[in-house]
TrEMBL record, chain B:
Organism whose genome encodes this protein: Alicycliphilus denitrificans
Stated name of the protein: Electron transfer flavoprotein subunit beta
Organism placement in taxonomy: Bacteria, Pseudomonadati, Pseudomonadota, Betaproteobacteria, Burkholderiales
Record keywords: Electron transport, Transport
Cofactor: AMP
Domain Electron transfer flavoprotein alpha/beta-subunit N-terminal: 23-213
Subunit structure, as described in the record: Heterodimer of an alpha and a beta subunit.
């Protein structure tokens, strides 16, 4: 049987997390189809046809699918679910929100946050904030899965030639209504897709200092900005920058941790980065145990110095 | 209206677990157990809604071994009015789908206006139960909540999503799952711990609720994650830049 990938998109284009999820789906065997559920999402559906390894794009378009409401998105997936042995969502805020509804309605367990496909029914996934890796086998007929994107290489976004099939959008749920959103506009790379991340911790001391110290370094490197939970809780950085067990999971080429002590929960979100740099004045900080390069220094001096030296 | 608050007993968040040498799981013998931190936030929120008059009764629920009674007592010390334990055998691995079905049965029985629970448990990191319950009970959901406001027969929820925040309005009854910024749970005081001991705690079995709790996912193996090779300390910024350019070649 075939695998269905639920695309993460903004109606105009396909988000990177979709590409990693396609790779995971291909490893499950069978054909890979992609569902683009959205509102005026023709461009995103066209973009999905170009993904290498995708044989069919299913495009559902309607008001009910405008805001990724879990009730409507799950209903849209359920409308075509019976054709598939595997249904894969990227483990993004939207994917995590809708996938368990699909699993529960199909009366199957969900395998969350997989990092490896061992075989069509067996997967690896981190547990306990990544301090252990479980190999799990699903005994259900349909596998509903969320995919940790850092575990899989992205499929190529161009070169494919899938056909588009249009399906009717499901009616909107009467019980849930989208009111509004505040999405930060930024020219920076997206945190989960960035090649370089500069991350700040509680040691920065204030939102002003966070911005004053971290931003120039990120600008210089063309990097995304991240933060520890402590920094977010203290209001130094917005919540969507949080890297860690319950925030964003990242694996850039270079991760620079400034004034982050390295709680287990933070390490869980970034320890798969290729190169880790830690700048911290506490020689005992646990972050040094995972850092490739540790610099024991006051970040208020070292970071500006680093900006100058680059 | 009643608020139902499911809570899970997990390894305390400060404990760094070890994988058992036979790779069958992690060693949780003699390890400190606590309430899942996200569930603690859920109990706090429900109690605050009661203090504001939006909720009339807070019912804490836990599914698991007999020791979950301690977790329920903690919930009642925070301010839950009564508790229900759905007790399962120690050798049974209780998975999110089974918990969601147990909670669905309790929702049918108790008819709460609001179910509020943690977005994920810090042991299995599944992030499933709230959404599954909402689907099974045919209720609207708002996951990853950072603000909850009951307005008439609706609940307005601000959610933490990728890139920022989003506001939803749900018709009650509804399911809400909590994120870290929703509130800071109060410290439980000794008088409240004493009071909690006298609050009612009912114990049920899955059979009483007619729910099949057989696991659908088999754990074949639990292993250590790959270790990172030991790094080095560099003396100064110049050395760091040199290493990044010429050794790691990442900038």
């Amino acid at each position: 049987m075939d695998a269905l990938v639920i695309a993460e998109h903004d109606n105009a284009s396909i988000k990177g997390a979709t590409l990693n999820t396609v790779t995971a789906a291909a490893a499950c065997g069978g054909e890979v189809h992609v569902l683009v559920a959205g509102h005026n999402a023709g461009a995103a559906a066209q973009a999905a046809t170009q993904i290498v390894g995708v044989s069919k794009v299913i495009h559902a378009d309607g008001d009910s699918l405008a805001h990724d409401l879990a009730e409507n998105l799950a209903a849209q997936v359920l409308a075509i679910a019976s054709k598939y042995s595997h249904i894969l969502f990227p483990a993004t805020a939207s994917g995590k929100n809708a996938a368990p509804r699909v699993a529960a309605r199909l009366d199957v367990a969900q395998v969350s946050d997989i990092t490896k496909v061992v075989s069509a029914d067996t997967f690896e996934r981190p547990i306990y904030a990544g301090n252990a890796i479980a190999t799990v086998q699903s005994v259900d007929a349909t596998k509903v899965i969320t995919v940790r994107t850092t575990g899989f290489d992205p499929a190529s976004a161009t070169g494919g030639s899938a056909a588009v099939e249009t399906v009717a959008a499901v009616p909107a749920s009467s019980k849930s209504q989208f009111v509004g959103s505040e999405i930060a506009k930024s020219d920076r790379p997206e945190l989960t897709a960035a090649k370089i991340i500069v991350s700040g911790g509680r040691a920065l001391g204030s939102a002003e200092k966070f911005n004053e110290v971290i931003t120039p370094l990120a600008d210089k490197l063309g990097a995304a900005i991240g933060a520890s939970r402590a920094a977010v809780d203290a209001g130094y950085a917005p919540n969507d920058l949080q890297v860690g067990q319950t925030g964003k999971i990242v694996a850039p080429q270079l991760y620079i941790a400034c004034g982050i002590s390295g709680a287990i929960q933070h390490l869980a979100g970034m320890k798969d980065s290729k190169v880790i740099v830690a700048i911290n004045k506490d020689p005992e900080a646990p972050i040094f145990s995972v850092a490739d390069y540790g610099l024991e220094a006051d970040l208020f001096q070292a970071v500006p110095e680093l900006v100058k030296a680059l | 209206m009643k608020a139902l608050v499911p809570v899970k007993r997990v390894v305390d968040y400060n404990v760094k677990v070890r994988v058992k040498s036979d790779n069958t799981g992690v060693d949780i013998a003699n390890v400190k157990m606590s309430m899942n931190p996200f569930d603690e936030i859920a109990v706090e929120e429900a109690v605050r809604l009661k203090e504001k008059g939006a909720v009339s009764e807070v019912i804490a629920v836990s599914c698991g071994v007999a020791a979950c009674q301690e977790t329920l007592r903690t919930a009642m010390a925070i301010g839950a009015d009564r508790a229900i334990l759905v007790e399962t055998p120690a050798d049974l691995e209780l998975q999110p789908l089974a918990v969601a079905k147990l909670l669905k049965a309790l929702v049918d029985k108790e008819q709460p206006g609001l179910v509020i629970l943690g977005k994920q448990a810090i042991d299995d990191d599944c992030n499933q139960t709230g959404q599954m319950l909402a689907a099974l009970a045919d209720l609207p959901q708002a996951t990853f909540a950072s603000k909850v406001e009951v307005i008439g027969d609706k609940v307005s929820v601000i959610r933490e999503v990728d890139g920022g925040l989003e506001t939803l309005s749900l018709g009650l009854p509804a399911v809400v799952t909590t994120d870290l910024r929703l509130n800071e749970p109060r410290y439980v005081t000794l008088p409240n711990i004493m009071k909690a001991k006298k609050k009612p705690l009912e114990t049920l079995k899955p059979e009483d609720l007619g729910v099949d709790v057989i696991p659908r996912i088999k754990t074949l193996k639990v292993s250590e994650p790959p270790k990172r090779g030991a790094g080095i300390k560099v003396a100064d910024v110049a050395t760091l830049v040199d290493k990044l350019k010429n050794e790691a070649k990442v900038i």
